Amino acid sequence: MSDDDLPTAAKGKRGVKPSGKPTLKTIAQMTGFAVTTISRALNNAPELAQETRDRVQKIAAEIGYLPDRAALRLKTGRTNVIALVLEPDEQIYGFGSSIVTGLTEAVRDTAYHVVITPLFRNVQPIEPIRHIVRNRMADGVIFSKAESFDERIRFLIDSEFPFVSHGRTNWPEQHPSVDFNNESYAYGAVKRLVQKGCRKVSIVLPDSALTYTDHLKTGMARAAAEAGIEHEFAADVNLGSPTDAIRNYVMKRTKRPDGPDGWVCASEVSALAVIGGLNEAGRVVGQTAHVVAKQSSQMFAQFQPGAETVFEDFVDAGRRLGSVLLRRIAGEGPEGLQQLTEPKFDWKD
Prior knowledge:
The protein is an alpha/beta fold. It is built from 14 helices and eleven strands. Helix 8 links the parallel strand 3 (140-143) and strand 4.
């Protein structure tokens, strides 16, 4: 759209930023369009020409327009907010940033914005969920580390509040979820370790309450039984343990005569600790000991000599979480809103 095509009221106002907080009326004055047209354009109303929507949205971005969420909530009952609950360590290890990247891509062409709600260590996981729901701080919520019988999910189902969990549960009701098939991952990883000649395999598991802990245990036990080898689950440490504790455990366990010669790792951080413990025990990863790890970033590739990896795409998980939640917010039933990503094994012999 050129200047000649703009309504008369808009000519000569390109590049002029208003003083004070921009409103719909501000954009209307700058474009010459009616306030109702501005509102529809910002909400991507399909009956408007794409050129009009693009023009209005461009000006809104240039002048820093943000909707009045309080007024929006009073008028429509909506906030146009998606809440993502994250623990601080999820952000530190890159999980959070990857999820946010994918999630923002999913909502990019919508009226929704992503707001991160922190879950601190001294706070019960249900508390930020209750706060969001009871105060109607968002139209939907996303969270991770789903437990087998997660009270957050029970609360959200009973509250009829849109949500999607990163991870599955054992509740009988179907609910929206996005997950990685950790049972298949553990099964395939053990099969690979058997190919490498391993006779006893181990894994540092997540917290026992998490659903994917059972998935990992099931896949590992099944593959070991089929291959006729021994398997064990690391004692006294889990994925939440300090890396020093994991490294020391692996070192001491490896030095024993009945120590494992193969390790399945459920995260990059634990894999680095396992590799460090094996090195301190005098093992050479890829020769006298073998490791298969999940990889979710390029960083790990720089520090995992000898280990083999299976990629878990958290950016894609973020896209899926956003897409599923938008469908749920739009009124789609929970049936069919479960997505399970399969691991891809690309072994290099």
